[in-house]
Every structure is written in C-alpha cells, then in structure tokens.
Inverse folding.
C-alpha cells in the first residue's frame, strides 16, 4: 500500500476551511480531500513548535521521552524504521532545519532530502570561509547566499524542480506498491511572504513595510504594531495558508485513490493571542490544536466523516502501521484511528503537551523551563514551574481566564494524568545534537533565534 503523510508547518486549526468554525483561509484542495475522508476536529500536537512536536508525531512517544527532543535516540523507533523493516520503501522530504539528519530523523529512509539548505558539495568550503570571515549576518554572506539560490534556480527548473512539491510528486510517481512518502511543507511558517496572487486574493495592504519586515516586527515586538498592521499580518498568514493549500493540491494530484493520505500540522501559530506572534514555548490551543485529515484507500472509505472525539499526534504512526498491516513496536504510546475512520467509536484520551525550552534557547532542553499540559476538549490543566492552573475551554476557549488550582470531578482525570507524566520525565538521559553555523542561520531566518 502507498502512504502519503503531509505535514504543514505552523498551521492553525482555525485556518483550515474543512474544519468546523474555521475563520479564514479557503483551503479548497483539502476541502476536496475531506469529502473522501475523516476530519478530526479535536486533534492535538504534543508540542508548540517543530522540535517539540515531531518526536511525538513520528515516534508515537511524548517529546521528553527517550532523552528528549534535541535528538532522536537510536533506541527510539521511528515510523520510517518500522515500515522499512517490513519491506516498505521510504522517502522523506522537508525544508525545516529542525528536521535535519543530525537530529536523527533520517533513519529508515532510502531517500531523505533537506531542500532548504544553502549548500552544495562543491561550495561547502567556500560557504564556511564566508561564515568564518564575515559572519552569518554580514551583507557579504547574505549576498552570497542570495546569489547561490538565484543562480541555482535555472538548474532546478531544468531538472524538474528541487522543492518539496516537485520532489514529492516524483517520489510518488516512482514509488513501489509498498511505499511511504512523507513531505513537510514549510508554508505558512513565518516570515509570511506568499506569492502576490495570494496576497491580492485576501486584500493585503503593506504600506512601506515588506511582508518579511512586518512579520519580523510582529514576531519580536507584537505590541508595537498598529491595528492596521495587525490586520495585515493576519491577512499575510491567511494568504500563506492559501499558498500551502495550493502546494498540497499539487502533491495530492500525484497520488491515486488506492493510497492512504494523512494531512496535519506539526503545530499551530499564535496571531497576537497571549502577546505572541509565532510559536514560542507555550501550551495554548492556538499552538497545540491542529487540523487532521485522513483519507483511507478508496476500498476502505466510510467517509466523509467528522470525528469530534479528541485524538493525538501519537495516534498517527499507529494508524499508518495499522493500514500497512505492520505491528507497532512496544515503544508506541498511541492508538490506531482506523476504527474512527471506519465510523466506529474510539476512546477519548487526555492529550499530554509539553516543552522544556525557553524563547532564548529554542530546541535546547532546560529542566527549569518545564511546562506540561493535559487537555480534553472541555478542560485543560497546565503545570509551569510552581504554577498550576486550568482553563475551562467550554466557557473560555481563548484561555484568557486561568483558574488557579482548579478543583472538582471534571479536573480529576487531568490531575491524575499530569502527576503520571511529571513523575515519568527523566532529564538525566537527555541527548544533544550540535548545530553548525548554517543551521543556526536557517533557524535565525525563520525567527527562532535573535
């Protein structure tokens, strides 16, 4: 069986038009897919940014399991490894520096492509010389980086393209019967700079600032923006989601009805909620409530379905293995969603969200920065340092009125899950991965580093 997993970076649940109560962002390609699949309205990511979210999504374990999220340890089984062991051909394609081989994500793949790197085997020494001589932020290095990308564009076009979409389409066309293709799209991640046609479609007005300049200001100083500028940021994000949907549609056109297709976001995005634009370490719903859409092979279709039971990212890998007829390894924590996709009930389980990093040290584990959340669709309990508070999501969906040390029957299962999770986290086994200068620069371009 062919399987396609598409993950979309920084995509809010509110900006997927196949989701109930969507507020913006027409996503027609995904609307069409939803008519032939199951939409999960209460899907939860286990972390608020890429380095915290993907360990759970691809290993069905919590972010801080197995030494944490700085690097995927060899004894932490990836979905790709399990499929490869069962004879599947696996291809992974991404442009996010957090997902590089140095972090352990490439295991199990026959082909693993990072299409976002400013690199070429013949230019590595020149690039390192420029970094050492001028530094990452110097105009000389940035000019060389631009020239490399600009000069490479014609070659990429002659070869049929080298972006995520073209490589994913090629991988799907060439894939054998038993194959797994995972593609991670960086849109709509900041800086929100979608093509002009999408900006015009949503009526973006930028004034004197470019999209990148405005987004950068919003990320670093959101309170400094005027109401008009805030509206422009919202519209730029909306246009970026439309662009992501267009790219998803191009990939979907290359996959047949006999394939399993899963589409989700790695995490959400704050748009001025709680004083933030982007996805700094926090556990609010704008960051962890994500879209999830599964279209099973046509012969097993029970949809279109809307499933309101809460599900979790740790459930995705077991679902893929279930359809592939492959047993899940003992380390997997999630449940298969196949019964729900086939119209049957599944248990609603609390979703653990967690992070132990600061804004100043993204992707680095800091025990003193530990935050743990436990979520059900109606309630959320959060532990942060010495603070313990809850949100009643029925009456306070925006999480604006924290309840200190909430009490009552509704909160007991959340307290129990929180205690179990807090007791299970062991920071002594944490493993780190070194980041070279090029990775640091790419993270800075995406707004993770100052």
């Amino acid at each position: 069986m062919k399987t396609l997993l598409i993950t979309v970076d920084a995509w809010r649940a509110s900006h997927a038009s196949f989701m109930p109560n969507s507020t913006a962002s027409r996503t027609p390609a995904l609307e069409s897919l939803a008519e032939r699949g199951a939409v999960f309205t209460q899907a939860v990511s286990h972390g608020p940014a890429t380095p915290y979210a993907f360990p759970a999504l691809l290993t069905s374990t919590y972010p801080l399991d197995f030494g944490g999220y700085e690097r995927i340890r060899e004894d932490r089984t990836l979905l790709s490894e399990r499929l490869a062991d069962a004879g599947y051909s696996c291809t992974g394609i991404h442009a996010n520096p957090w997902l590089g081989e140095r972090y352990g994500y490439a295991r199990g793949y026959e082909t693993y492509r990072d299409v976002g790197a400013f690199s070429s085997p013949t230019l590595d020494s020149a690039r390192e010389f420029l970094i050492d001589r001028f530094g990452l932020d110097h105009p000389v290095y940035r000019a060389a980086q631009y020239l490399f990308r600009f000069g490479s564009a014609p070659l990429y076009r002659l070869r049929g393209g080298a972006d995520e979409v073209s490589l994913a389409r090629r991988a799907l066309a060439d894939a054998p019967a038993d194959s797994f293709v995972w593609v991670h799209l960086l849109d709509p991640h900041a800086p929100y700079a979608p093509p002009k046609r999408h900006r015009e479609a949503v009526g973006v007005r930028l004034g004197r600032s470019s999209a990148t300049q405005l987004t950068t200001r919003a990320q670093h100083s959101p309170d400094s923006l005027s109401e008009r500028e805030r509206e422009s940021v919202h519209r730029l994000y909306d246009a970026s989601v439309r662009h992501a949907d267009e790219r998803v549609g191009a990939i979907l056109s290359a996959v047949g009805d006999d394939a399993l297709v899963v589409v989700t976001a790695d995490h959400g995005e704050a748009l001025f909620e709680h004083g933030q634009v982007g996805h700094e370490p926090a556990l609010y719903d704008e960051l962890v409530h994500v879209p999830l859409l599964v279209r099973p092979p046509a012969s097993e279709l029970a949809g279109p379905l809307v499933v309101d039971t809460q599900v979790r990212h740790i459930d995705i890998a077991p679902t893929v293995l279930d359809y592939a007829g492959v047993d899940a390894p003992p380390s997997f924590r999630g449940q298969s969603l196949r019964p729900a996709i086939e119209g049957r009930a599944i248990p609603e389980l609390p979703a653990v969200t967690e992070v132990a990093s600061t804004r100043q040290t993204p992707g680095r584990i800091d025990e003193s920065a530990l935050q743990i959340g436990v979520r059900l669709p109606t309630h959320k309990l959060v532990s942060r340092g010495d603070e313990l508070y809850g949100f009643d999501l029925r009456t306070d969906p925006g999480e604006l009125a924290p309840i200190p040390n909430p009490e009552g029957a509704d909160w007991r299962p959340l307290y129990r899950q929180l205690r179990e999770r807090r007791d299970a986290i062991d920071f002594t086994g944490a493993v780190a991965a070194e980041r070279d200068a090029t990775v640091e620069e790419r993270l800075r371009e995406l707004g993770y580093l100052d």
Notes: The CA atoms of residues 29 and 246 lie 7 Å apart. DSSP finds 14 helices and 18 strands in the chain. The two ends are 44 Å apart (CA to CA).
